[in-house]
From TrEMBL:
It comes from Gouania willdenowi. This is Neural cell adhesion molecule L1. Belongs to the immunoglobulin superfamily. L1/neurofascin/NgCAM family. One of its GO terms (biological process) is brain development. It holds the Pfam family fn3.
Length: 1050
């Protein structure tokens, strides 16, 4: 089709529309405009390629098809001479076509028809020519028989095994294999050159084989031919007398291909440039490429054959120059320069195009081509050289341009332009048609065009007429023609609206007019809101098994029907039973690895579309590490190496190394160490005499992998213990013994078999020899000791491999006995209502017969000074630690107004001594405890009845009760009122002047010392609650105790 829409292409569009018009006229004239008969010179529509290679096993078809009015007739030239098809029964021409079909029988060979063919399509208005088609038959010649002598070469030297395949058409594909049809391995040292030879930069002893076979594959015949195999024998250097290895002489690089220091290469424009540089040497040389005076074209260059081949695609003139390959090893280097020339077969700069003119109009045909060397231009008309035709006063040739002036109907013809040089040619047919026709509209009538607001818009009005009509646009049938400002009219009839707005809606009319008449067409324009995605999907990472959700909220013009579709990795997304799509989102439950990819939401209307993409990354626990390997073993360490498993898109942050041993706790895996996620080889610190096996767990942000397969087992050798038994101590369970105990070594601390302990002890500061014992237990009892004597103690762990380190000396004690003395002169002072100061004479510390713990005071409440009050006489104890000469302490938490008895003993860690003297004292009077209950018993319409109980402890002589109360209205409180009561009164009725008011009450008991703890109660308004009290009295029995401090009344 013709170029369209792009503003930069409108100058081409003007020309192209006439070609389009021409086609439309000739194809539609018989249907749309029956009275009009348009004549058309021939046009070649299909032809075979210029270089036409055919398979000899198939019939030959040389294609040539053309159109024209009247239908063209076809003829052929072969090798520049008329080809009489009727004289050869094997050659037929297809019906309604000029294509030749050549069949083979009666012993004729395809090669008999090789040559250059050209097709001529002619009618009354001209002759069109095809390209010159060079017909060749594919050939797959046999390899010449030859006897190949064994190739003998010294190890380390270079070698070329030549292939020299038979020439084929097209050339065969070369590859090297052995007799078992296995490819010969190729690498930096051994590789095949562009000519098919096999190059050895240096030969090694392992290269000796009897079956190096060069194979040629002919693509047309699909046959493979094999050259007789080479036998390669490698002579190795003699073994040095004093050494066990073979000496191979090293060598500096030399070139195997190309030879010499420089060469040249010619390549045609747009073809592929292949430069080769193969070097010999030991060690194998490395090949590098560069271009003198510039850089290699990075976008077009590719290195192949282990850097020995430089390939540049789509060669242009800028690729000409000097290319240098350098081969080097540590002994030296060598260079080769290749001078590349870029030539060019002809290529079009301005290809002649068909020309439609009206009588007496002017026009021109232009044929411009370039190449290297510069191509020559030849004009032909109807297949004949222009200079051999009769002079035409309406035609003038100026080099690559033909100028037509005041043409007439008989000027119609087919002109050919031939551009050629030594590398090829171009042939183009251009129709010159002289037509006299009134304006006609070619597009559909009354078309409705819907466009998007604020977008550049084009309204097409294809038309034709000869001479070319003038065209004008009108909107809604009013005003002058549209052009300029908001509008632009192109010569092909298209109206551009630079930015379509709602106000641009309406009916547009295009009118084409010439001296022969007028024609018009209408286009109705509707401007729509754009379709857009207002909430697009966002990239997200989801853990395997979770749910992923992609948003896709759409806004569009209400009058347009839209469809929303989803793709994954640019392929349609099959929803199935699992994936769910609604109007605004796509939900993927239970995501797995197969769900990972890029999801695209596409919303389409009939005139526009929008899309947005987001990537889903599925995270998972890592795969378990693999291939655990142990190395660098020593007595107490070993290197563990592993291959990390797939991290499943969440980087591994940590590796956990676990171990299992098969003696103490077989089957139980214990963590040994953890390492950063970038490590996969670590030194493990081990303990002696353990039969280890290891496994590794990988950790990422999702969690832990499954454990790896276990490593092989590794058993460390035994050693004396390293550890010292912990928590060593000595204490007596009886007055004449001492138990020495310690924490035994763990299984991993044994370091060898037969673990046992050696324990030493002696009396502290005695200077005696150490006593010792060996035991396998974790306890030893020393008998017949003195009471509470300090001992020095130490311990050592041992096994069959030796003794471990000794512990530090600790101090332990033998057993305690009952203290023999009692504290004396126990007395009290400063007795208050709830505490008293006690005093006593201390004992001699030697009489404690153990570790002094405390002076322990035993006391009990004998009675209350309140008549008739029964008390609890339970004995209580309290300890005091003091070593001063005149000790004293405060005894607290006593009950006021009570009589107490007490005595004191001294205590060590096991026993109490004899009691001191028993004394008696009384506490002073205090304030009462809180009343046991306080509640609103009843509430009537105009009263509240309160009841309470006596305090739990009066703490003195009870003098009575005090009741404070005030009204509460929202946040406002009334003036407090106070009532006092005798000790025997435990109820009170309050008259209510306003039953809708709430009250707060505060009650306390009273002794001579003062008020006791306050209890509070609140009455709700009658309107909310009081009627419950009348019918459900228990509702009001709920009381709420509160410390007076809560209300600020104390």
């Amino acid at each position: 089709m013709c170029p369209h829409r792009s503003e930069s292409s409108y100058h081409m569009y003007t020309v192209c529309i006439y070609v389009y018009v021409y086609y439309c006229i000739f194809t539609a004239a018989m249907f749309m405009w029956r009275p009009v008969t348009v004549k058309q010179p021939p046009t070649i529509t299909k032809q075979s390629v210029k270089d036409f290679i055919v398979d000899p096993r198939d019939n030959i078809v040389i294609e040539c098809e053309a159109k024209g009015n009247p239908l063209p007739k076809f003829s052929w030239r072969r090798n520049g001479k008329f080809f009489n098809i009727g004289n050869d029964p094997l050659v037929t021409m297809r019906k309604r076509s000029g294509s030749l079909e050549i069949g083979f029988r009666n012993g004729r060979r395809p090669e008999d028809y090789e040559g250059e063919y050209q097709c001529f399509a002619a009618n009354d208005f001209g002759i069109a020519l095809s390209n010159k088609i060079l017909l060749r038959v594919s050939k797959a010649p046999l390899w010449p028989k030859e006897v190949l002598e064994p190739v003998v070469v010294t190890e380390g030297s270079s070698l070329i095994l030549t292939c020299n395949p038979p020439p084929g058409l097209p050339p065969p594909l070369i590859f090297w294999m052995d007799s078992n049809m296995n490819s010969i391995p190729q690498d930096k040292r051994v590789s095949m050159g562009l000519n098919g030879d096999l190059y050895f930069s240096n030969v090694l002893s392992q290269d000796a084989h009897r079956d190096y076979c060069c194979n040629a594959r002919f693509p047309f015949t699909k046959t493979i031919q094999q050259k007789n195999p080479f036998t390669l024998k490698v002579q190795t250097s003699p073994t040095h007398e004093l050494k066990t290895f073979i000496l191979v002489a090293e060598s500096t690089p030399t070139l195997l291909a190309p030879l010499g220091s420089e060469s040249s290469k010619m390549v045609l424009r747009d073809e592929e440039l292949l430069l080769e540089c193969i070097a010999a040497g030991l060690p194998t040389p490395t090949v590098k490429w560069f271009k003198k005076g510039g850089d290699l074209p990075a976008r077009k260059v590719k290195f192949e054959n282990y850097n020995k081949t430089l390939k540049i695609i789509n060669v242009s003139e800028e690729d000409a120059g000097e290319y240098v390959c350098m081969a080097n090893n540590h002994l030296g280097s060598i260079r080769h320069s290749i001078f590349v020339q870029v030539k060019a077969a002809p290529y079009w700069l301005d290809k002649p195009s068909d020309l439609v003119l009206a009588p007496d109009e002017n026009g021109r045909l232009v044929c411009r081509a370039n190449g290297n060397p510069k191509p020559s231009i030849q004009w032909l008309v109807n297949g004949l050289p222009l200079e051999s035709t009769l002079p035409n006063p309406n035609r003038q040739v100026l080099g690559d341009t033909i100028i037509f002036q005041s043409v007439q109907f008989d000027s119609s013809a087919v002109y050919q332009c031939n551009a050629s040089n030594q590398h090829g040619y171009l042939l183009a047919n251009a129709l010159v048609s002289i037509i006299d026709m009134r304006p006609r509209m070619l597009g559909p009538k009354n078309q409705l065009i819907k466009v998007i607001q604020n977008k550049q818009t084009f309204l097409d009005c294809p038309f034709f007429g000869s001479p070319v009509p003038d065209l004008r646009w009108f909107k809604n049938g009013q005003g002058s023609g549209l052009d300029g400002g908001h509008y632009r009219v192109y010569v092909n009839g298209t109206l551009e609206i630079k930015r379509a707005l709602v106000g641009d809606e309406g009916t547009y009319t295009c009118v084409a007019s010439s001296m022969l008449g007028t024609a018009e067409n209408q286009v109705r324009l509707e401007v729509k809101e754009p379709t857009s995605i207002v909430r697009a999907p966002e990239h997200q990472s989801s853990v395997r098994g979770s749910t992923a959700r992609f948003d896709c909220k759409v806004k569009s013009d209400p009058s347009l029907h839209i469809t929303v579709s989803w793709t994954k990795d640019d392929k349609p997304l099959y929803l199935g039973w699992r994936l769910k799509k609604d109007e605004e989102s796509l939900t993927i439950p239970n995501v797995n690895e197969g769900d990972e990819g890029t999801y695209t939401c596409t919303v389409k209307s009939e005139i526009d579309q929008d899309s947005a993409s987001a990537r889903l990354t599925v995270l998972d626990r890592p795969n378990p590490p693999m291939d655990l390997d142990l190395s660098d073993a020593s007595a107490r360490s070993i290197r563990l190496t592993w291959i990390p498993g797939n991290e499943n898109r969440s980087p591994i942050t940590e590796f956990l190394v676990q171990f299992e041993e098969d003696h103490w706790e077989p089957g139980r895996w214990t963590e040994l160490a953890s390492y950063p996620g970038h490590l996969n080889s670590v030194m493990l610190q081990l303990v002696p005499f353990i039969n280890y096996q290891f496994r590794v767990i990988a950790v990422n942000s999702v969690g832990q992998s499954q454990p790896s397969r276990p490593s092989p087992r590794y058993k460390t050798s035994g050693a004396p213990p390293d550890a010292i038994p912990r928590d060593l101590r000595g204490w007596g369970s009886e007055k004449d013994n001492m138990e020495i105990i310690w924490e035994p070594l763990s299984d991993l601390e044994r370091n060898g078999p037969n673990l046992h302990y050696k324990v030493w002890w002696r009396a502290k500061d005695s200077g005696e020899e150490w006593n010792n014992v060996t035991t396998i237990d974790s306890k030893y009892v020393v008998h017949n000791t003195q009471t509470y004597v300090p001992y020095e103690i130490k311990i050592q762990a041992r096994n069959d491999f030796g003794s471990g380190p000794e512990s530090n000396v600790i101090i332990g004690y033998s057993g305690e006995d009952k203290p023999t003395d009692a504290p004396t002169e126990l007395r009290v002072s400063k007795v208050e209502s709830s505490n008293a100061v006690i005093h006593w004479k201390p004992v001699d510390m030697n009489s404690v017969q153990g570790e002094f713990k405390e002076y322990r005071l035993h006391f009990w409440r004998e009675s209350s000074l309140v008549p008739g009050l029964v008390v609890n006489k339970e004995m209580k104890s309290k300890g005091f630690y003091s070593t001063v000469e005149e000790p004293s302490a405060i005894l607290s938490d006593l009950v006021p107004y009570s009589t107490y008895h007490m005595f004191m003993v001294v205590a060590n860690k096991r026993y109490e001594g004899p009691p001191s003297n028993t004394i008696k004292f009384s506490t002073k009077e205090g304030v009462p405890d809180v009343p046991r209950t306080f509640r609103i018993k009843r509430r009537g319409l105009d009263f509240i009845h309160l009841e309470w109980d006596k305090p739990g402890e009066p703490n003195g002589i009870l003098l009575g009760y005090q009741l404070k109360y005030y009204t509460v209205n929202g946040s406002k409180e009334g003036t407090p009122q106070v009532e006092t009561f005798f000790p025997n009164m435990t109820q009170f009725t309050l008259s209510l002047p306003d039953r809708a008011v709430s009250y707060k009450f505060f009650l306390s008991a009273l002794t001579q010392v003062g008020h006791g703890v306050v209890v509070a109660e609140e009455s709700p308004p009658f309107a909310n609650e009081a009627h419950f009290c009348l019918f459900l009295p228990f509702f009001c029995n709920y009381t709420k105790l509160s410390r007076a401090g809560r209300y600020g009344l104390l």
